[in-house]
Specification:
The structure holds two protein chains of two kinds.
Chain A lengths: L1 H6 L3 H7 L1 H30 E2 L2 E2 L2 H7 L2 H34 L4 H16 L2 H12 L4 H6 L9 H26 L2 H9 L4 H30 L2 H6 L7 H12 L2 H9 L2 H15 L22 H30 E3 L3 E4 L2 H9 L1 H31 L5 H13 L2 H11 L1 E2 L2 E2 L4 H25 L3 H9 L4 H30 L15 H10 L3 H45 L1
Antiparallel strand pairs in A: 1-2, 3-4, 5-6
Helix pairs in contact in A: 2-3, 3-14, 3-18, 3-19, 3-20, 4-14, 5-9, 5-11, 5-16, 6-9, 6-16, 6-25, 7-9, 7-16, 9-11, 9-23, 10-11, 11-15, 11-21, 13-14, 16-25, 17-25, 18-21, 18-23, 19-21, 21-23, 22-23, 23-25, 24-25
Chain B lengths: L1 H24 L9 E6 L3 H15 L2 E6 L2 H10 L8 E6 H9 L3 E2 L21 E13 H7 L19 E4 L5 H14 L1 H12 L2 E5 L6 H5 L5 E5 H9 L4 E4 L7 E9 L5 H12 L1 H9 L30 H20 L2
Parallel strand pairs in B: 1-2, 1-3, 6-7
Antiparallel strand pairs in B: 3-10, 4-10, 5-8, 5-9, 5-10
Helix pairs in contact in B: 3-4, 4-12, 6-7, 7-12
The chains are: A mainly alpha, B alpha/beta.
């Protein structure tokens, strides 16, 4: 298999020079073999083997339809637009929180509101968007706009941008937070204008975060099937939706697998593009040589005003969309009988109890296991040199790049027979989440390590600290904000994602998101809203906890620097 | 840095082992007799009530997951080597016919099968019908009043420009309701004429929804004017209190047969057979009538109380499940090529 081939040329030297790295790699490759390669290979066999013979018949059939080609273009255009618009919005929000003079409570509000789209299942916000901007929509009526169609590119783009820009916000603000404020001070005291400081220091130093966010958003949009399913309509087909329709509607597993196989090409392209853009530059800013922490310099006034205006507009819109869902969960029958009632919540806690506890357990396990793996993989990929490193990095991201529908089907095919019999178990759900959504953690760890000069670790060692002490007292504290940021996203995804796991839920293990989708298809709008609100509140609370940890650890991380400054000063 | 890496390796190994441990930990042994695992294509709110009654009658506990018909079939095919469920409950008979071709179902003739008319069960005994659902038009009463329209009473009424960009109906790629619509049109107009009609109809369609009932809520809230649905979905939303009109085309409609069947290799076969026996008895029909579950029972000897389910004034067209199963893929592909992509 791939991994053994990748090792052979360096096995001897690597085993000798770095046995620990060698065993770490073996362990990780082993998990890749089981949870990434095996399903994909089984899927490829399904796609390219017809009656036991290699055949391109499926591929020819799929590529021969103009509608499928249109779907390929649709996917690319959508992913590009979403990644650009989402990263732009995320950057603006990150700047607003880290670099403007907005009062603290407002900043907290910004942070809290931006995670709303992220912590709710994507189809929920699509539904409220339809109610607001769809035909006869409430907002359209209020504004007196008559002829506006949300179905198609526009609606899908708006909804996905709103859903995914918080990812950009999280990744970029983590980077903006770990920059050294003394660079700002130096620039200003050397006479640079605030504009010049912004364009020559803040922007270049945030490039790893921007690149990272574009990659993540492109991947997320490329794989999202729920939003286009609701808002795309028939005029704007995209590949994951077409693949999903082919599998679930036409019973055509081969066709669906083949269609989603096409998605691998753009996913690969983006990945290599990102390596090219960021691979050779140094973004070291935490050098250990800087002095006491000062406040970040504020942005130029005109820019600050623009940023705040955009943020407030977006926040108002998001709050409006969620007010619709909140209202819907408390009324007897949506838009007919608006009497206040708690009966939907009573139903949720009576019939949805198992779904709630199952979802929490699955998300908790996935977050813990995924984060440990993410730290190891991110650390090895950024700090170590070994043969097949890029392939290693790519493999780790493969399940994330593949549309969830396909991962789900691939997992069923691969794990439904001996020796690895997992269908209907908890572990198949956990594995699907871990190997799909730890990607954010990995990227986040890598981006954070890119900013940290290895000289810090070397200095610690040469000053006599053991390597364990160096790792626990230097590396870990430095990357912990990034790890926690990755954990937040992993947990949120495990609570809200549906595309892969909709195929993996079983009579024994069920998820909240599938219950919500169920209520939606059964036209129980109020019940679906109540389920969504419960889910949102749970995730919001868990997220607040992690945010608190993030704050605590970030301030810890700055302490050693202050101490070191005192020592240098003395 | 060697010690660091040792710590890391240890952590990975712990992570990996815990995954495997969980894999072992949750592999429950199937319990004998008392439980039944089911994929239900029938909506959860109906299935919950029906299975509650079944459990009361037989003491067999039912665990179920609700899936769309395509998803259920895709899963049953993927899980063929190690079936996760014992029975499939609800969903159109042509889905069962497709499953039979894939070797998913087992033959079983329920105890009272012969009381169910022959056109409502599989010729070879793979599935048994549990309910009948004709297609119907569902319209927003206020929209009709504002535009001065009568409820649509013919398929051609839907071509009226007054409905421009305001019809919602299901997408043939995902929904059994939509393929039923095509079967109806083919039976009414003949195949070529039916597709010419659908191309014209397309001009008035605002959105093709993924689920068969997906358009019902938009019509109820006035986002859309009218659409074509199975009676069970149309009545359900009307019963919630929305101001809606149900009408039938004079040219006639076909109807879907909701079926049930046992999965080949079922681990709780006796319990699955008990469910099939129960479903073929009068009991199921009575439970549905009592709970306002608006399928027309397949047993002719069950008394239906809801006047909307009285089919004596409706022209029902016969469409054999085998014919549907054989033509389904071709009809859908033609629909994609000629209607959607025009």
């Amino acid at each position: 298999m791939h991994e053994t081939n990748a090792f052979r040329p360096t096995r001897k030297s690597l085993m000798k020079t770095d046995p620990a790295l060698f065993s770490a790699l073996v362990a990780v490759w082993l998990s890749f073999a089981i949870f990434i390669f095996l399903p994909v290979i089984r899927l490829l066999i399904t796609t390219f083997y017809v009656d036991g013979i290699f055949s391109l018949a499926n591929m020819r059939k799929v590529l021969g339809t103009s509608y499928n080609i249109k779907a390929l273009y649709g996917s690319l255009i959508l992913a590009t637009s979403v990644s650009i618009a989402g990263t732009f919005l995320g950057y603006i929000f990150a700047l607003a929180v880290t670099r403007t003079a907005l009062p603290r409570p407002l900043k907290v509000l910004l942070g809290a509101v931006t995670i709303l789209p992220l912590i709710s299942p994507p189809f929920t916000s699509s539904i409220s968007l339809t109610l607001a901007l769809g035909p006869n929509g409430m907002l359209l009526k209020a504004l007196g706009i008559g002829d506006f169609s949300i179905y198609g590119f526009l609606g899908t783009w708006i909804s996905e941008t709103l859903t995914y820009f918080p990812v950009a916000f999280m990744v970029i603000s983590a980077i903006l937070n770990t920059m050294s404020a003394t660079l700002d001070d130096a620039a200003l005291s050397l006479g640079a204008s605030r504009w010049r400081m912004f364009t020559t220091i803040t922007i270049p130093l945030s490039l790893p975060g921007i690149g990272n966010s574009i990659l993540l958003l492109f991947g997320a949009s490329l794989a999202d099937f729920a939003t286009p399913l609701i808002l795309g309509g028939h005029t704007f087909p995209v590949l994951p939706t077409e693949a999903y329709l082919m599998i679930t509607g036409m019973f055509d597993l081969r066709g669906g697998a083949t269609l989603s196989f096409l998605l691998l090409v753009p996913a690969l392209l983006v990945f290599f593009l990102q390596r090219m853009l960021l691979g050779n530059k140094s973004f070291v800013s935490v050098t250990g040589k800087n002095g006491a922490r000062t406040e970040f310099a504020k942005l130029p006034t005109a820019l600050s005003v623009f940023i705040c205006a955009v943020c407030l507009f977006i926040v108002a819109f998001i709050l409006y969309l969620y007010a619709i869902i909140l209202w819907g969960s408390f009324v007897k029958v949506w838009s007919v009988n608006n009497t206040f009632t708690l009966e939907h919540y009573a139903y949720v806690f009576k019939h949805g109890q198992k779904a709630i506890s199952d979802t929490l357990l699955i998300a908790f396990l996935s977050t813990v296991i995924g984060s440990v793996l993410a730290v190891v993989i991110g650390y090895v990929a950024q700090r170590k040199q070994f043969f097949g490193k890029r392939f290693f990095e790519f493999t780790s991201m493969l399940n994330y790049a593949l549309p969830g529908t396909v991962v789900g089907i691939a997992y069923i095919i691969a794990f439904n027979q001996k020796p690895i019999l997992l269908t209907g178990t908890l572990s198949i759900l956990v594995a699907a989440y871990v190997f799909r959504y730890y990607a954010t953690g990995i990227r986040s760890v890598i981006a954070s390590l890119e900013q940290i000069d290895p000289a810090l670790e070397e200095a610690s060692m040469s000053l006599g600290a053991s390597s364990v002490r160096t790792f626990t007292h230097v590396t870990i504290p430095l990357i912990i904000p990034a790890v926690l940021a990755g954990m937040r996203y992993l947990f949120i995804h495990c609570m809200t994602a549906i595309s892969a796991t909709i195929f993996l839920v079983s009579v024994r293990w069920t998820l909240l998101t599938t219950r919500i989708l169920e209520s939606m298809t059964e036209l129980q709008f109020s019940q679906a809203s109540a389920f969504s609100m419960v889910l949102i509140v749970i995730v919001f609370l868990a997220d607040a906890l992690m945010l608190y940890l993030l704050k605590v650890t970030t301030s810890k991380f700055h302490k050693p620097q202050e101490i070191s400054y005192e020592k240098v000063g003395a | 840095m060697k010690n660091v890496q040792k710590v890391l390796v240890l952590l990975i190994l712990i992570a990996l082992c815990s995954t495997v441990l969980f894999a072992q930990g949750v592999q429950e042994k199937p319990k004998a007799g008392g439980t039944l695992n089911v994929y239900s294509i029938m909506p959860e709110k109906y299935a919950t009530k029906i299975f509650e009654e079944f459990t009361k009658d037989t003491g067999i506990k039912v665990n179920f997951v609700r899936l769309s018909s395509g998803e259920a079939l895709a899963r049953l095919i993927a899980e063929k080597a190690n079936p996760q469920v014992d029975a499939l409950w609800g969903g159109p008979a042509d889905t069962y016919e497709a499953g039979v071709l894939e070797g998913v179902f087992d033959v079983y003739s329920p105890s009272e099968a012969e009381k169910v008319p022959a056109q409502f069960r599989s010729k070879d005994g793979y599935w048994t019908g549990i309910g009948i659902i004709p297609l119907t038009f569902l319209s927003n009463a206020k929209y009709l009043k504002d535009k001065g329209l009568n409820p649509p009473a013919s398929w051609t009424d839907l071509l009226d420009p007054a409905y421009r960009n305001s019809l919602q109906m299901a997408d043939a790629r995902t929904s059994g309701t939509a393929t039923e619509r095509i079967y109806s049109l083919v039976k009414v107009y003949g195949e070529d004429e039916a597709y010419a009609y659908q191309k014209k109809l397309h001009q008035n369609v605002q959105l093709y929804t993924k689920g068969g009932a997906g358009g019902a809520m938009p019509i109820a809230t006035g986002q859309a004017a009218s659409g074509v649905f199975y009676i069970v979905d149309a009545l359900d939303i009307q019963q919630q209190g929305y101001d809606l009109v149900i009408s039938y085309p004079k040219e006639g409609v076909t109807y879907g047969v909701e079926a049930s069947g046992i999965i080949k290799g079922a681990k709780n076969k006796a319990a699955a057979q008990a469910l099939m026996d129960w479903a073929s008895s009068k009991r199921l029909g009575e439970v549905m009538v009592a709970n306002l579950i608006n399928y027309i029972p397949t047993r002719p000897d069950v008394t239906v109380t809801n006047p909307s389910l009285d089919m004596s004034q409706v022209k029902l067209l016969e469409a054999d499940s085998t014919w549907k199963g054989e033509n389904r893929t071709r009809f859908v592909e033609r629909w994609i090529a000629e209607v959607i992509q025009q």
